[in-house]
Amino acid sequence: MLSSNLQMAIPVRNQAEQPLKEALLELENKYDVSLLFKDDLVRDKRVKKTIWHADNLEQSLRQVLQASGLTYKKVRDGIYYVIPKESSGEEKVQKTSSESLLRRSPRLYQVQHPDFNPPQSLPIAERKISGTVSDTQGQPIPGVNVVVKETTTGTLTDADGKYALNVPDDRNVLIFSFVGYISQEVALGSQNVINITLQESVDEMTRS
């Protein structure tokens, strides 16, 4: 009778647990997000199914990762990075460096971390840049070509010399060009509004 009870207890225990990786994939599907992690970080780890069915993603993540000595970092909306809990200042520096590389160049991160499992498509964060292009007299210049350097992303200024475009986070230079004016390259820095004054080219000034 005792042997029978033990045999019945084993499948009940197995049904109450699942691999951590499987739980993370279920959370991905349930909340339509990407959870980034290295295979060796979750390998052989298991979690009880009953502890992570919370009302929202981040609460579920905390519950499922806490039992495994892990935590998470939100990279951007819809993307979370599963990481070890910090144990030293050196680990914090390494984690910060890895997160920075992940944001700048996901493909390079994958090369340096071959066991890393990225989502099928990792969206690149963008920010909106806007402004006005004028001549030296303060008059707006319509039709100025505004391009993100080393990309095909660009736009033209409107009748009031205004422009707006979305710039990927890994790009930081805009090129402003227009016939009869000297082209300008402008580093964005942390600015979201860039107003530009274009100088007439020497040839154009000579003609006038």
Give an account of the 3D structure:
With 208 residues, the chain is α+β, with helices and mostly antiparallel strands. The protein has 2 domains: 2-117, Phage tail protein beta-alpha-beta fold, CATH 3.55.50; 126-207, Immunoglobulin-like, CATH 2.60.40.1120. It has 7 helices and 13 strands. The chain has helices at 2-15, 20-31, 39-42, 57-66, 89-104, 106-112, 202-207; strands at 17-19, 34-38, 46-48, 70-76, 79-84, 116-117, 126-134, 145-148, 154-156, 162-168, 173-177, 184-187, 196-197. It has a 4-stranded mixed sheet, sandwiched between helices. β4 and β5 form a beta hairpin. The radius of gyration is 26 Å and the shape is rod-shaped. The protein starts with a helix and ends with a helix. The model is unreliable at 1-14, 87-97 and 100-112 (pLDDT under 50).
For the record, the count of structural domains works out to: 2
Instruction: Tell me the CATH architecture of the largest domain.
Output: 3-Layer(bab) Sandwich
Cα-based radius of gyration, to the nearest Å: 26 Å
Strand content: 25-35%
What's the layout of helices and strands?
Blueprint: H1 2-15, E1 17-19, H2 20-31, E2 34-38, H3 39-42, E3 46-48, H4 57-66, E4 70-76, E5 79-84, H5 89-104, H6 106-112, E6 116-117, E7 126-134, E8 145-148, E9 154-156, E10 162-168, E11 173-177, E12 184-187, E13 196-197, H7 202-207
Parallel strand pairs: 2-5, 7-13
Antiparallel strand pairs: 1-3, 2-6, 4-5, 7-10, 8-9, 8-11, 11-12
Helix pairs in contact: 2-4, 5-6
